[in-house]
Amino acid sequence: MTVILNLGPTHPATHGVFQNIIEIDGETILNADSTIGYIHRAFEKLAEHRPYYQITPITDRLNYCSSPINNIGWHLTVEKLLGVKTPKRVDYMRVIIMELARISDHLICNSILGVDTGAFSGFLYLFQHREKIYEIYEEICGARLTTNIGRIGGFERDFNDVAHRKTLEFLDEFSVALAEFESLLNRNRIFMDRTIGAGPISAERALNYGFTGPNLRAAGVDYDVRVTTPYSSYEDFQFEIPIGTQGDTYDRYMVRNCEMWQSLSIIRQAIEKMPEGPFHADVPEFYLPPKQDVYQYMEALIYHFKVVMGEIPVPVGEVYQAVEGGNGELGFYLVSDGGRSPFRLHFRRPSFIAYQAYPEMITGGLLSDAIVTLSSLNVIAGELDA
Amino acid sequence: MFDFFFIIEKLILISAVLGITLFIAAYSTLAERKLAAFFQDRIGPDRAGPFGLLQPLADGLKFLFKEAIIPAKADRFLFVLGPSLSMLAACMACAVIPWGPDLMLFGRTVALQITDLSVGLLYLFGLVSFGVYGVMIGGWASNNKYSLLSTIRASSQMISYELAMGLSLIALVLTTGTLSIREIVLGQPGWHWNILAQPLGFMIFIVCAFAETNRVPFDLPECETELVGGYHTEYSGMQLGFYLFAEYINMFISSAVMTCLYFGGFQMPFIASLGLPQNVVALFGVVFFFVKILMFLFLFIWIRWTLPRFRYDQLMRLGWTGLIPLAIINLLATAVFQLCN
Description:
heterodimer, A: mainly alpha, three-stranded antiparallel beta sheet, 17 helices, 11% strand, B: mainly alpha, two-stranded antiparallel sheet, 12 helices
């Protein structure tokens, strides 16, 4: 006899609001059906009514575990439309922030996977370092979770000394914590038994679904936006793309762990090679002039007014800009008709795509597998529903 | 003949033992939270009283004042019966534990044990099997699918691990030749602890003890990430408190049983050679017994905050294809050894 079990939308293991109606025979899942849309906030429609710079805070709420990547991805999209060339220093600063965000995203995913298998302590070992990352964000932009970091063209201010010091401290402390976390779980017999073979997906199926990011790399495809179409000067850095073979939960976990080490190395390189120069591009139509100038010079006053009111003519055209988000290729497809706000803006949200494969991945497995599969896919409800 | 003093003595002993059991169970909740905090670089509860020492009291009060909600579709009688049975089974187990050597008071020999059953081991074993009814009835009566799944897990887990536990105990009985827990303890004077004779049996027993008390890595019946709250998903107030409390009492009792069966119980090495008065020896024995119990409690807590939990099928596989064959081999080896002696 089979039983219909309603897994979600308020279930402690669905980190966010997902509903899965599963048909189980004993503990084996025979059928699964996912419902999405519980926190749909119509971001794409909202964006059609806002000036470009006011869309950045919307992107915060997509994947809120790594909002700086979303912010910077949006800025890169607008810069691509405007044809702005950012200075090297801006690129490097962005790389540092995006890699910090990637670490914070992956560490949540992996440590929550630990919680879902029952190992709670490892979660806290890593989680307290997310706090350190948030403190760095705070020094850079004043916010912690919904960062709204940077501006179109660069940053509103340079990194201060505290941010530098905290970043260096983080690099040292986090290496120790990550090594400790790995020693708790990586070769833990129970953890391996729980995750190896749980929720597998083949490379072919993953590609058919349109998987990207760690979920695709765990299946054995070495696709990474940072390498295939470098943005923000990623071509200047040396790093490896870890890939898995089985596409199961353990591989996804390992890929994310390895990527955290790579991100640490990228941040170190960026700090070492950080060039001197301006911290924003010369785009007066989009970048607020210093307040002092606004009071003294007429041009600055005009630009200030136009930027704040969002009354800036933009070129007509369509652009697609992708960045490697925490969960995969985060794309922004922007159509501009020259008006103050986009004619159409589409977010290519990796979680949305990964979640489509979820029913297929858990069918035939056990109930426990379904839980660890969901946490290792790292489906973020905010990004799923947009 | 009616012995008035005997009744008084036993009444005092029963209340003392029950009081101590409940006290230790209450404070092991605090110890659990404090140790978890220590393992996780946190501070832990420190608001109620100095160093949070009144925290168990505050928790108990909170449970008492919370509304005990009974779901509309639940079976009201069985729903209340479940946690009561769990608590009852947990509390009854302390009756056969020998807490220390005999005391000499007012010219009477007072045994620090409520009753020395000749089939003490079987009694304990019966209670362990009885305890699962509390979980089963409560979870089933909740009329909730998660609770139901959890009860299925709980009952199959308990039955599977009881087998291995029983087999490891039979090997122990072969070496000791008695089912009375007191005699088993008395049979381990000095350093002649049963762990030395039955190391494999002890390993099997401790793994099964973790499974029987639903502790990590065998806490599948109540794993919150899959089954919400497991069998106590629908429970609230003191009924929930009973379930949680019964778990800690079980932890305490199984630590005591492990100490009695394999670690010499209240037997303290070298104490006999000191030539102390009997009552002092008895007192030392009780203290030493509790030191051993607390070490086991620490082990329970330590493992809980370190390891992940098994998956249901892996748990079953470990029980049936790992522990039971091992226990049988252990039993046969012990039997052959006993025959040759």
